[in-house]
Automatic annotation (TrEMBL):
It comes from Nonomuraea helvata. Residues 10-176 form the N-acetyltransferase domain. PROSITE patterns: GNAT. Gene3D superfamilies: 3.40.630.30. This is GNAT family protein. It comes from the Bacteria.
């Protein structure tokens, strides 16, 4: 039996309360945190435990999902992926992804994105995915281009972190573009 949530390197799953420690440790890598959104003051282990426990208890919708990216072998949490900005009328959605720094450059992000897009396109009938990437995040820019996303626009100087302003680059991929590149075998 093959799960729709399992790829070559990762499996997507719900968060479990014991995942708190992995995600808490990822916050130690300030540059990666800035690339994902913005740097926050450190949080306590107690707060991280509460965050994971609360997420584990939440009921997820079919479209608005937040999933742990775990290694296929070993089930070790390496990051998280979520959908947002869902528009059922137009069939569009956006997603965000974060991979913990110790797990960068291992193919986990690309594998997770393909799994999520396959679900959203072929199970939930969306027709276009979007992602915003900060212009200083060269690895993420390269990943989205490699996956076949098209650069559709740029919001200039719209993100401030580490003493500099970055542009936000909008990427998009239609179901047809996805199917051409990543059709399930």
């Amino acid at each position: 039996m093959t799960s729709a949530w399992t790829g070559e390197r990762v499996r997507l799953r719900a968060i479990e309360p014991e995942d708190w420690e992995a995600f808490h440790s990822f916050d130690e890598y300030s540059e990666a945190v800035r690339n994902g959104h913005q740097l926050h003051p450190p949080q306590s282990a107690a707060r991280a435990r509460k965050w994971a426990a609360e997420l584990a208890e939440q009921t997820q919708g079919l479209d608005d999902v937040r999933l742990v990216i775990a290694t296929r072998d070993g089930n070790v949490p390496v990051g998280m992926i979520n959908t947002h900005s869902l528009d059922r009328v137009h069939g569009t959605f956006a997603y965000g992804i974060g991979i913990g720094t110790p797990h960068h450059r291992k193919g986990y992000a690309g594998d997770a994105i393909v799994l999520l897009l396959r679900y959203m396109f072929f199970e939930r009938r969306f027709q276009k995915a979007e992602a915003w990437v900060y212009s200083s995040n060269e690895p993420s820019l390269a990943l989205h281009r490699r996956l076949g996303f098209v650069e559709e626009g740029r919001r200039r100087r719209s993100h401030y972190a580490d003493g500099r302003y970055d542009d936000e680059v909008l990427f998009g991929m239609t179901i047809e573009e996805f199917t051409e590149r990543h059709a399930a075998s």
